[in-house]
């Protein structure tokens, strides 16, 4: 059986490799702090297996997270200038390969679909080939490995570019460009679980019941959609905001009290949350990472461009929910 934890271990090894390369990069003015950050992240991927299996305590992971936060807070992460192709080399590579440069990227969805549609059904005796419940992640992990192999065969990086280690060197360059924002999605997902466990949804529901006029459908729709957007702005993830606002307003008020269509209410509610995604730096993988990779002058450039779209889109989602989820039309 192929287990998903193998790919977590591989991720950990990659981060440890990034840490090793960073320590040796004398062009990085804060190479030791940067290496410590990526090294701690790499160790956490391996140590987490023992925590999940309850063969090791979880508190060392908590200390590691605090140390990583301290490294970020004290500005111990930096970028090196050594390595990586220059603009002339990039242009030459683009002219040489043209559209074929997209082949490794297209390999990823192709292999992932193969796993999701075909290999998920394969069994060896009574044992499934893929670990149950993690088939998609396993397919994505294998797809990434295959894509790297295809890229190496196609591009044949020279020794000066790192040879077979070119993917690791380029990966380090991208991680240094992204910085601490690379781990923000995992941190925010954990924050969402903490909010739910702490009963934030119940507390928000109690406050809403005292403020929201009784019997006001439009008020419930506005508060639910606006709350989804605001909590997404705070948490950076609409999926983390969803259980909080659904427990507070979505289920008890819009579904049980006003008998809304659950599919329409929750689907449009998620779209309202995504409007918040367009407006927050906490959604780093959508808003900060592109700015870093494109080397934009302002790291908040994508957000500034998206806000004029996000606000009217949020209002449209409120109108759609009010009209179609409660039988106002049709």
UniProtKB/TrEMBL annotation:
The chain crosses the membrane at residues 6-23, 35-52, 58-77, 97-117, 137-156, 177-199, 211-231, 238-258, 264-289, 310-329. Pfam families: DUF979. Keywords: Membrane, Transmembrane, Transmembrane helix. InterPro entries: DUF979 (IPR009323). Signal peptide: none annotated. This is Membrane protein.
